[in-house]
Amino acid sequence: MVMVDCYIPTKTIRDRFDIIRQFIDGRSVLDLGVVDSRPAKGPACQRIRRSRGLLFRKIAEANPDTIGVDIDAEGVQVLREMGYSAQCADVQTMNLQKQFDIIIAGELIEHLENPGQFLRNMARHLNKDGVLFLTTPNPFYAKQTWKIWRYLRPQVQEGHTCWFDPLTLSRLLQRCGFEPFDGYWIQPRLELLKAWRRLLRKYFSHSFILLARVRTK
Prior knowledge:
Rossmann fold, 29% helix, single chain, alpha/beta, globular
């Protein structure tokens, strides 16, 4: 049974930026988790400079009125040297003393120790009519079944502390003062041998994005 208080996507996109791009023109934008924090990928300067597909760079190039935030001080300094506006802060507790039209948290919430605290903090940083974008991996991604059969466990990126699906993330958003109003499954590329279930049920997609506003009532 589908709960009426949860948002389950019905549409699929290949690139989350295709949706974000429609909202950021002429708006004040806060992008969170703007540094690839995986140490295995090398020093911050190397990770950032070779990541031309980095979401923050796409957003900032489309809208210069974008501020990036990350807890990685080295990575933030590299972004500043490249000419981007970035600050080092903990998204769970920071107070930028400013509200924004758009807040984007791409592949971030699954890294946090306190997702609820983070969302409540974002509610304080979002304008009355602003939009919060959350993207996160889907724990039910079809390829994970293959990973469990092959390696006896699912694939979990270093630094991940939790998993959400659209149902649980919708409920957490509501508890923290938000109302989800739109969303999309994200499926960049489909490997038929390992992820064919996605063709039968969208809930086996790679990841998803939810859009939410601060609840006014």
